[in-house]
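[Automated response] Your request has been received and processed.

Submitted sequence:
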Amino acid sequence: MSFDHSSARPQRLKFQGRILFLTEDTALIRRQLEAEGDERRRVESELAQRLLNDDLPLMSNISTDEITPGWVCFYYDETLGQYVYVGMREGAVQKDEVKTGNFAVVVSGLSKGCGSSRETAPYAEKAAGVQLVIAQSIEKIYGQNSQNCICQSLFLLQIITIMISRTQAEEFAVEWIDAWNAHDLERVLSHYTDEFELSSPFIISQEHEPSGVLKGKNKIRAYWQSALARFPDLRFELIGIFSGAQSVAIYYKAVLGKTGMEVFIFDENRKVCRSVAHYDK
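Generated structure:
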């Protein structure tokens, strides 16, 4: 009896070909598809830099019907590659444009592959030469069809790290401080996910919770309401702002003469999903 030996997946993958950015502005999609020669590289570099600067709105909710409309599904072989994305809004993509454009990577926004569970969608992308699909979130069945059914060589990557720009960090910090100084609890909470986690030494001393952690808006709202009642003159003073890949740290003057450093971790929707408070004494 013989066995097929599979090799370990390489630590790095290299894709030969262009990047297609599926943007909210369909004119930018047309610009990429119509570019020739050196213009292709210039457009790709420009859009990649805009994405890094968080200045490139990506198209979200791209349905499987946009990837392969119903009438395209009469094909069941590599012919599908000629028609990938022809159902896209505003007629952004025409027949053969992706396949002949030498696109290896496709980048889009939230909820890629929503809608019906047709297997033709990822197959068409693969048949058009696409090797890597990057999206801010990927719908479950579309992902399963891509990886488990027919497209073993089509890789999916969900963006989980959202770069926080310096400007966004500063805007968040100023708004967070202002909301607390206004004693507007709902305004403060609007920056957090429903199930966010808060870690603070005050939770140990005031809530008698040995872990120092509370989870969920309801519990934390009650905790903060109690804090505002204890400190009716509460006022924070911003000292410094530090930005990370998907986090912001705020250095500020807090209550009881303490100086605080609070670290905020953001999810893909730029809502705080975890916050950790530190104090100097």
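Summary generated for your ticket: The chain has ten helices and ten strands. The longest helix spans residues 166-181.
If you did not submit this request, please reply to this message.
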